[in-house]
Amino acid sequence: MSEKEWIPQGIDTSVPSIARVYDFLLGGKDNFAVDRQVAQMALEIAPDGPATSQANRDFLQRVVRYLTDESGIRQFLDLGSGLPTQGNVHEVAQKLAPEAHVVYVDNDPIVLAHGRALLTKDGTTTIVQADIREPGAILNNPEVRRLIDFDQPVGLLLFAILHHLNDHEDPEGVAARLMDSLPSGSYLAISHFHNPGAQHPQVAEQATAAEKLFNERLGTGRWRTRQEILAYFGDLELLEPGLVPLPLWRPAPQSAPTVGRVPELAPIHRSFVGGVAIKR
Q: What is the pTM of this model?
């Protein structure tokens, strides 16, 4: 099938998409030449960059398993969900709790087109086209309200999305507004591009170059400091092990380190961190 045959109506394939660049880095096929060009430029800066994309996917799955199995969360709001791939939120959550509700939100129309084709037909999962910069529109969306009961705890998933908000778009305020709408017992999970600064100068240099590329070609992308990212959790209680490189957040048993040791990290993993917090 040629590209033209599967392009949803209204998609401009001359402009790169964040979701499609990420899809390419994960080894997906829902991307175009312009997306692959940007991805290849990113790989010239950080050849092992796909490892962070996969680490983010693995982190998502571990978080969803934890929230479903150990914390009893039965509804998830996944903002900036991106193109569907293996091990989506609803697949992980509903394997453990078939009654779990999942709402995906993304502002890319191609995500909507591809996502709907993969969703279950039992009314537990949906996808909504909306922009995280307008949290009120998301919270009041009828489809969101149909599946999410805002009187019950929610797992709010902000994986690889806040770093695509520029500083003047107030990512801290966006996260706070969303969490303010959720009841006690809800959780916030964040993954975010990270610039470790002088502590890891090689990674910091790559982060600075990648940020320049992303902003020139995608118009977005911020590699922020640890303190900047921590601020997005506000006064929520951060769960152990805190804000860490993604492979270090509660690794699966088969990859768990020997007692007293931490997993060995490739330098690139210092450029992507994540954490989970609870609203008491």
A: 0.91
